[in-house]
Write a structure and sequence with these properties.
Elements lengths: L14 H6 L10 E7 L6 E3 L7 E3 L1 H13 L4 E6 L17 H11 L5 E6 L13 E2 L2 E2 L2 H17 L3 E4 L6 H11 L6 E8 L6 H6 L20 H12 L4 E5 L5 H10 L4 E5 L1 H12 L5 H15 L3 E4 L2 H10 L1
Helix pairs in contact: 2-3, 3-4, 4-5, 7-8, 8-10
The protein binds ligand PBG.
């Protein structure tokens, strides 16, 4: 006999009781805030499909980083926009690129922030693909050299963690080797190990101006139907030397986060991507959803699935809400 002996509602009676038995406690300490660095001075252009998110020049990046640090958010991840795009993504590994200069400026300002960088070529190539191309084919091995050069340039500028998001095979090993050869054995790698070919990157591609000029990314990013393959991708990246791994996007892939968390004993990150953010913002603007409630619910769900690190454009709002609790 269960009822009336067992009454689960007993422990839901008050907020204090609910707090006492809560299984998942969302905290600011696991959040990473994504930012878009662009050339110029005093530039701050809002991304139309991502309200509250800006393309910003280095001076503005530093100002917002100050705010991020003051909110107790431990980390930012930087994406870059180049002055010029070309076939070989030259500005991706240019010491004077917007990302490299942003890192230096954040370091100079002595902000208490972990600086991550996205390592990819798509923002920097004239064709918008994440690797070098021959005809319409995205070549794997020749792309590795450029990706490793990009990671090295970020390390030289002072990045703590580099995060390759290109999905070329072997890029973690190539980056690890290049970093170690140059004395950056303490720069960590967070690999976007299970990165799916997703429709939810749409707004990001507006922010980073990285829409592919032809074709799509299905020959290198993962098929949304596959979860077992994610475990294989993660295992390969760990063998190659990744310190942490990421599942991306988050909401449609909570099962993947959970499986990875259960199978492997490494820190797991999840990227709550641009389209997930845009969807919430659009509904909130129409008065259809309560922003604070749904964002905290979404992030709690991502953490409950098994991610201890969450990259999210909501990070500043969440930090403010959690402070007020
Ligand atoms: C670069 C990259 C992308 C995202 C992160 N790194 C876009 C893509 O693969 O097209 C997406 C992030 C987001 O949507 O918020 N390869």
């Amino acid at each position: 006999m269960t009822f009336p002996i067992h009454r689960p509602r007993r422990l839901r009676r008050t907020e204090a009781l609910r707090g006492l038995v809560r299984e998942t406690r969302l905290t600011t300490s696991g959040l990473v805030y994504p930012m878009f660095a662009c050339p110029g001075k005093n530039v701050r252009t809002e991304v139309s499909s991502m309200p509250g998110i800006y393309q910003q020049s280095v001076d503005q990046i530093v100002e917002e980083c100050r705010e991020v640090a003051d909110l107790g958010i431990p980390a930012v991840i930087l994406f870059g926009l180049p002055e010029h795009k070309d076939e070989l993504a030259s500005e991706a590994y240019d010491a004077n690129g917007a990302v490299q200069r942003s890192i230096e400026a954040i370091r100079k300002a002595k902000l208490d922030l972990i600086v991550l960088t996205d390592v990819c070529l798509c923002e920097y190539t004239s064709h918008g693909h994440c690797g070098v191309i021959k005809g319409e084919e995205v070549l794997n091995d020749p792309s590795l050299v450029l990706l490793a050069d990009a990671a090295l340039s970020h390390a030289r500028a002072g990045a703590d963690i580099v995060a390759p998001s290109d999905m070329m095979d072997g890029r973690v090993a190539a980056i690890r080797q290049k970093l170690d050869e140059n004395g950056f054995e303490n720069v960590a790698i967070l690999s976007y190990a299970a990165k799916y070919s997703s429709g939810f990157y749409g707004p990001f591609r507006e922010a980073a101006q990285s829409v592919p000029r032809f074709g799509d990314r299905r020959s290198y990013q993962m098929d949304p139907a596959n979860a077992r393959e994610a475990l294989r991708e993660v295992a390969l990246d760990l063998e190659e030397g990744a310190d942490m791994i990421m599942v991306k996007p988050a909401m449609p892939y909570l099962d993947v986060i959970q499986r990875v968390r259960e199978k492997l004993d490494v820190p797991v990150a999840a990227y709550n991507v641009s389209g997930e953010y845009a969807m919430v913002k659009a509904a909130v603007q129409r008065g259809w959803l309560d922003e604070k409630r749904v964002v905290l619910e979404i992030l709690t769900g991502i953490q409950r699935a098994g991610a201890e690190i969450i990259l999210t454009y909501h990070a500043k709002d969440v930090a403010r809400w959690l402070k007020a609790c």
